[in-house]
Amino acid sequence: MQQDGLSDILHWLRLKAEVYLHTDFQGCWAVDTSGSRHVPFHFVNNGNSWLHLPDTEPRELQRGDLVIFPRDCKHMLSSEKNCPSRYLVEETLEKIGKFPDEGPLTGLTCGFFEFENKAAWPLLDSLPEVIVLELSQPDKLQSTRALLELLISELEANEPGTRVSVNYLTHTLFVHILRSQIGNGLEKGLLSALFHPKVGKALGLIHAEPAKDWSVENLAHTIGMSRSGFAEQFRDLTTKTPMRYLAEWRMLQASELLRTSELSITDIAEQCGYHSEVAFRKAFKSITGATPGAVRKQS
């Protein structure tokens, strides 16, 4: 299997995914899941809903639409086209599971994605504030639609193992969402670089062997590009030089080892490609703004 830079990043950032609500709304209702510092998502599995964003006209969401907020921007979903009040949001929370039998019915599945490793990594930076995938259209994202159908089936069957099964399916859903944005023509940012046939391969090599004595020359040679062409393409996509990216990836690994292992700082330095503890400490402070000892103490 070829190097897979996206899988490496999701592994190190420890992607967590969860569905916390799967229910029917009826009558007049509104939900607001923003401000959680996660990446919220909502799937309309029945009926319709209105999406409200600041300074934007309301957008109707139909059955089969999936909406995601990569940077947790302010939003509301409701039964009404007019923006609802905070009071209605609070009232809806109290009604969940006991709505009166009146008015149109809307089925919503709500969840979130988050990175348990809080290291800043620009995976989501190039994505739009709001992503709406219209999965009801038969010619689009068929595998994503099939995945969501399986997810809903698991939730409604509610058999032993459902919680784990749903969390794994939701985890996979995040990957599908990222792929959809490449399909929509995303041209810049780390995500675009990961899907680039040459630069993505270089990122996979860095992720797989961060301690190796990489240079721009040997990375370019390994992936079959000229040094200048590779350096320019890499920086154009990621806004970083290959060596800066390598150094930051090493520090991501070092930070994780400092928090989760009992390895000495010298051993961690060696695992991250530094032959001198002094050089490692200097690079760590320069890139993270903290000392290795401070990160270890915080853990």
What features would you describe in this structure?
It is a single chain. By secondary structure, this protein is α+β, with helices and mostly antiparallel strands. It has 2 domains: 179 residues, Jelly Rolls, CATH 2.60.120; 103 residues, Arc Repressor Mutant, subunit A, CATH 1.10.10.60. The protein is 46% helix and 17% strand. The protein is built from 12 helices and 9 strands. The strands form 2 sheets. It has a 5-stranded antiparallel sheet. Strands 2-7-4-5 form a 4-stranded antiparallel sheet. Helix 1 crosses helix 6 and helix 3 packs antiparallel against helix 4. The longest helix has 22 residues. The mean pLDDT is 89.
Helix content: 40-55%
Radius of gyration based on Cα positions: 22 Å
The strand count comes to 9
Order of helices and strands: HEEEEEEEHEEHHHHHHHHHH
Mean pLDDT: 89
Question: Which superfamily, in CATH terms, is the homologous superfamily of the largest domain?
Answer: Regulatory protein AraC
| Main sheet: strands, sense, barrel | 5 strands, antiparallel
Structural class: alpha+beta
Strand order of the largest sheet: 1-8-3-6-9
Q: What is the count of distinct domains? A: 2
- Which parts are unreliable, with pLDDT below 50 for 5 consecutive residues or more? none
Termini Cα gap? 35 Å
Q: What is the top-level CATH class of the largest domain?
A: Mainly Beta
Please indicate the percent range of residues in DSSP E strands (runs of 2 or more).
Answer: 15-25%
Number of helices: 12
Shape: elongated
CATH topology of the largest domain: Jelly Rolls
